[in-house]
Specification:
Elements: H1 3-22, H2 25-33, H3 36-47, H4 59-71, H5 75-88, H6 93-105, H7 109-116, H8 129-153, E1 167-170, E2 174-175, H9 185-197, E3 204-205, H10 208-218, H11 230-237, E4 242-251, E5 255-264, E6 272-279, H12 283-297, H13 304-311, H14 318-332, H15 336-349, H16 354-371, H17 378-382, H18 401-412
Parallel strand pairs: 1-3, 1-4, 2-4
Antiparallel strand pairs: 4-5, 5-6
């Protein structure tokens, strides 16, 4: 091929590449500017270049279409575009998020929750994962609030003998020092203990958010946890047979003492306390000892792989742990900007502290969702591949549970993997989501409005 032919071929390829990128330019510009009506028209025009918009495989245009139509409150049409994308790419995170948002707006919150549960199996580097997790946590928290209100109303009828044998709730440790700045450490210790206990599949562990929502409902503060008569009541309301409570005291020269109680609500008079005393840097080893003592007292069956996961430390840096604890406290009070700053600081101090990074990403997503700026920032979000931590990080979910979570999600959606199944166990057929769209009432305003 001579130089002229090479030059002509290069010009042709360059022109084609410009055209390929250029056909989205107007639509993308409208989307970024928040002109969703014009954006929707442009994306639909692109989709109609195929034989049928409904059968298009142009994920970029389909994505712009479902975002634009969601913002125009045309939830049914937006969901249809989401479902088309998910039939092409079953783990497309923007489609999962907006499909869930549409389902929520259409009153199908149970199905929305199942979709948002995908945050547990998406890669931690996926830029839309924090948004999906944020919406999942929002719906779970709303369900917990309803459950707790009902439980409190029916408190007099709770039969402690019917509470699960393997259930445990970890209360916040109460700061017994004069310095109030240490108060949030009690939440951090409880959070770490809960994370480890949740790695044991045979246990039924109450989440920290469940505890916090109950305390909010009862209008109780952390100091109320010092009341010895309160622990059995919280156990009944949390449907937990065993309660872990206690205090901690930080002395000069970085000395710490933890007094941790183990209570069976069926025998509340027999509460047992154990003291753990040493340097503040020993708090991580103390936390592991406390978990071991709890498992022993509960006669819990722990597998070798579960024990290996429990033995791993989220962090061993006290400053990072303190920042993380402050973040939890700020999060509970709803001051998201402060919570974000604390979690970010914790991760900066210890780049291997995965839970600090994960909370930082989720809180940042919550802030953007609350501000209503998600749609116009789509391209900025989607092109920002997240970088969580350096190698060797520890997640709160054991790796071997990931496949089980995938199977669980499949079952939730009505898909049963196995012999003769059309798809593998990791695939979901989104076309089988039970959606009788024509039978739905007129949709309410979008979430957040």
């Amino acid at each position: 091929m001579d130089n002229k032919s090479l030059c002509a071929a290069f010009i042709l390829l360059f022109s084609l590449s410009l055209f390929a990128g250029g056909k989205y330019e107007a639509a993308d510009t409208y989307l970024k500017a928040g002109d969703f009506e014009l954006a929707a028209k442009e994306y639909l025009s692109i989709l109609k270049e195929d034989e049928s918009a409904a059968m298009s495989k142009d994920i970029r245009a389909l994505t712009g279409a479902f975002i634009s139509h969601y913002m125009l409150q045309d939830y049914k049409k937006s969901f249809a575009f989401c479902r088309r994308v998910l039939n092409i790419d079953k783990y497309n995170s923007p489609a999962i998020l907006y499909a869930g948002l549409n389902l929520g707006a259409l009153g199908k919150t149970d199905i929305a929750k199942k979709l948002f549960k995908y945050h547990t199996v998406l890669p931690v580097t996926d830029p839309y994962r924090p948004f999906i997790k944020a919406r999942y946590e929002f719906l779970i928290e709303r369900d917990l609030e309803k459950l707790i209100r009902k439980t409190v109303q029916l408190e007099a009828h709770i039969n402690t003998q019917k509470i699960p044998e393997n259930s445990v709730a970890v209360l916040y440790l109460v700061n017994d020092s004069q310095n109030e700045t240490w108060d949030p450490l009690g939440k951090g210790v409880a959070d770490f203990i809960i994370s480890d206990l949740k790695k044991v599949r045979s246990l039924n562990v109450v989440s920290r958010r469940h505890l916090q929502i109950l305390l909010n409902e009862l209008n109780f503060g952390i100091l109320d946890l010092l009341d010895e008569n309160l622990a059995p009541r919280l156990g009944r309301l949390l449907n937990s047979r065993f309660i872990i409570n206690g205090t901690f005291y930080i002395e000069p020269q970085n000395q710490i003492t933890l007094n941790v109680g183990f209570l069976d609500i069926r025998e509340p008079e027999k509460i047992e306390y154990t003291e753990y005393k040493g340097k503040t840097s020993d708090i991580f080893e103390f936390q592991k000892q406390i978990v071991g003592d709890i498992l022993q007292r509960m006669f819990a069956e722990v597998t070798g792989s579960e024990q290996d996961e429990i033995s791993k430390h989220q962090t061993t840096n006290f400053d990072a742990f303190q920042a993380y604890s402050n973040g939890l406290d700020a999060f509970d009070f709803g001051t998201l900007s402060s919570a974000y700053a604390y979690f970010k600081n914790a991760h900066e101090i210890d780049p291997r502290f995965f839970n600090a990074w994960d909370m930082m990403q989720m809180v940042d997503a919550m802030i953007l969702l609350n501000n209503g700026n998600l749609a116009i920032n789509h391209f900025e979000i989607y092109n920002n591949k997240l970088k969580p931590v350096t190698s060797g990080f520890v997640t709160s979910i054991p790796i071997e549970q990931i496949r089980l979570q995938k199977v669980s999600i499949n079952l939730d959606l009505g898909y049963f993997p196995g012999n003769g199944a059309r798809n593998s166990a990791g695939d979901i057929d989104f076309s089988k989501i039970p959606m009788n769209m024509e039978m739905l009432d007129e949709p309410p305003p979008p979430p957040g409005n």
